[in-house]
Amino acid sequence: MTTERLSPPVRADERETLRSYLDFHRATLAMKTDGLSDEDLRRQASPPSTLSLLGLVRHMAEVERTWFRRVINGEDIPLVWSAEGDFQVAYDARTATRAEAFDAWQTEVAHARRIERAAASLDVTGYQPRWGEHVSLRLVMLHLIHEYARHNGHADFLREAIDGTVGP
After folding, report:
1. What is the per-residue pLDDT across 74-118, written as a single tens digit (0 to 9) for each?
2. CB-CB contact of 43 with 64 (8 Å)
3. Alpha helix locations (H) across the chain?
4. What SS3 class is residue 141?
5. Which terminus of the chain has a smaller tally of CB atoms within 10 A, N or C?
6. Residues 15-19: what's their mean pLDDT?
7. What is the pLDDT of residue 2?
8. With b meaning 16 or more CB within 10 Å and e meaning fewer, what string describes 8-40?
9. What is the per-residue DSSP string for 49-68?
10. Could you tell me which residues are beta bridge partners of residue 135?
11. In this structure, what DSSP letter does residue 11 have?
């Protein structure tokens, strides 16, 4: 599997820039997992931390679901891996598979893209109960770019510990 990652445009309007950077970071996470087995993806490279590449993919499925479907779209749905709302459950990938994790993540990314494209503007808001605030689509997209960038840094270290692969 080879992931295509397009560079964001150097001149675009705000929405296209945010959309492009978010997709760039989504593709980066996918690239960090290319060519690895389920066992490799589950590997916890920095014990006692349980963090793994597959756990990161599962976590980002939860993040996409929460911010786009639950917050912006107002859907009353549970998390993917925890009906109790425990975000930490996604990180426990000891029995997870690539197919299960990537199917969930890709499903949530597709929902997120649909919701973002259907929104009238970046000023559309949704309620974030953890913050007790209404937040804009603009903030959600920026938050996800930040979340992916941070976790892609983790993915760099995890991938290098698995097979020595480094790079973009």
Report:
1. 999 999 999 888 988 999 999 999 999 999 999 999 999 999 999
2. no
3. 14-33, 38-42, 53-64, 98-118, 137-163
4. helix
5. C
6. 96
7. 67
8. eeeeeeebeebbebbbbbbbbbbbbbeebebeb
9. ----HHHHHHHHHHHHIIII
10. 126
11. S
Q: Is 85 left (phi over 0), alpha (psi -120 to 50) or beta?
A: left
Other CB atoms closer than 10 Å to residue 155's CB: what's the count? 23
Count the neighbouring beta carbons within 10 Å of the beta carbon of residue 145.
17
Torsion of CA 161, 8, 124, 139, to 10 degrees: 40
Could you tell me which residues come within 8 angstroms of residue 135 by beta carbon, excluding any fewer than 6 positions away?
71, 125, 126, 127, 128
Q: Which residue has the tokens 């499925």?
A: 61
Given a cut of 80, whether residue 3 has pLDDT beyond it is: no
pTM: 0.93
C-alpha span between 42 and 88 (Å, rounded): 15
Which of 101, 10, 16, 39 minimizes the C-alpha distance to 64? 101
Residue 155 has which token pair? Answer: 């993915």
Q: Give the pair of three-digit tokens for residue 81.
A: 């891996």
